[in-house]
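Researcher: Please predict.
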Amino acid sequence: MIVKKMPILQGFPDFETVKKLTKKHAFSEHFVPVFYDIETTGLSRNSTFLYLVGAVAYEEKNWQMYQWMIEDEKEEPELLKIFSEFLQNFSCTIQYNGDSFDQPYLEARYQIHGLPSPFESLPSLDLYRQLKPVKGLLKLSKMNQPSVEAFLGIDQRDYCDGAACIRHYKQFASGKKKEAADIVLGHNQEDLLGLGKILSMLSYLCLFEEGYEPLNCEFLDEQIIFTLVLSCSLPVEFSNYSEKFYITGQKNRVRFLIKHQNGRLKQYYSNYKDYDYIPSEDTAIPKTLSVCMDKKLRKPAKKDTCYTWFSVTDDFVRNPLKQKTYLKHCLPYYLSTLK
């Protein structure tokens, strides 16, 4: 078995940033995360095997990268045992698409070899799942790791992709090409370093999770402009728009421009199943009130019709608390319309 350990000197977020970006996931106060990525000879958990595990852990005020690669399929049980023991030191795992592939694959291999799973009661943070809401906002055509890395400016890798790694590993394991091990390990290293950079994208979720404070609100012709201060800094600036609004962000500032109608704005509500829409009045009302109305005058509200109107007064423009209440309900709706 090939075992490697090396310090990560640059390109990985500092520990406090990792802690801040993952704080909302209610991990234990004893926060000891581990990033990991695996390489397998295929997707099937029953007919393929695990040949490489890479991990990044914070030790003695530095990030350290670990890699374990077997030289023969017979070593897989030993690899699984080593990784299981390694995981005992951590309070949570962080991966990309790990909830759908990495962890289920590993759990299956542990079961096949009659070994206990190390993942029981070990929380996980799947960056792929967490970042799904930002796909439309950031104009991402795909959500695979290379596409997300390209958005961050990581558009070139030195090593091959995961599929080609299987061929290189088999050449290495058969003894035909021992230098192929460096290619496989290099690919895994790039995946692990990519996890650190991708983690910074959790900052975009501030817009979906009220992680901001209104700084300014002003009228400009037919638009109302909100300037927001985010609780986290964005890794890459962005902009997007629809017929109804325009949004742009850079560092920890976001500008949200929305069209008003004669000084009025729509106040959207996310629990649209609890509302009926009244077409004649162009408004939604709670079903507890509409139940007494003629059924011909109402229809079940949908996401796009669950709103009321309100006038944007001087008091609203000067009151950050009222702006925050408005944005709390409406910003997630508008962002969800971006595809």
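Model: The longest helix spans residues 180-199.
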